[in-house]
Amino acid sequence: MFEKGFCIEEGVFSADECDGILSALANSNGSRSRAGVRNLMSSPIIAAVAYDDRLIGLTERISRSRLVPFKATLFEKTGKANWLVSWHQDTALPLERYTSSKEWGPSSVKQGINFVHAPTWALAKIIALRIQLDPSTADNGPLRVVAGSHRKRLQMDVEFARVLADGKEVVCMTGRGGVIAMSPLILHASSKADNDEPRRVLHIEYAESLDLAPGIRLSVA
After folding, report:
1. Domain that holds residue 48
2. What's the number of domains the chain is made of?
3. Residue 208's domain is classified under what CATH number?
4. Over 70: is that where the pLDDT of 124 sits?
5. CA distances from 32 to 15, 111, 168 (A)
6. What is the pLDDT of residues 39-95, one digit of tens each?
7. Count of CB atoms within 10 A of residue 15's CB?
8. CB 50 within 8 Å of CB 207
9. pTM
10. Does residue 40 sit in helix, strand or coil?
């Protein structure tokens, strides 16, 4: 199901449920920026969405074990807040405390939380689910991925160039309420929107356990 590093499930949430999530997000106390809102696991309503049986069941079908959510972020792209995201992997994880392990780093602190760039073995334990709160179309800056590019953390520009040249780009278009599941290691990007239609995505990250290894524990953000 996940051999390409991503999959799409249509119609997971209804339009009414999407409206309810958007209402909760509008009243959340997360850290808001031009691009969206961070630290949303502090919202009881968003945390309840993250633990929804449909999402937990999807992570279980992908990983063959029940995962737990630890991080939730709203990405909000509109005509007034329109940006492109170049090809990259998501390699930083929130940790309860800084680790001096040579496998990890560099690190930064965002809203009081330590984010540390993680090694391949740690990122392979993570699955992200992206709830599409608006339709994701060819015109509103949809997620693009390179299928099968999730097997290792890339370190150098030449590695990125090789994977992009050899891989197959997929444009992930979904209806409202669909969910895109992806490995944080998959190469992904998005273009600027060509219209004023909003593209709001609730991005939730899951792991087998908050304890990735002895002394390395994920922070809930």
Report:
1. 6-88+126-212
2. 1
3. 2.60.120.620
4. yes
5. 24, 11, 34
6. 999 999 999 999 999 999 999 999 999 999 999 999 987 766 667 889 999 999 999
7. 11
8. no
9. 0.95
10. helix
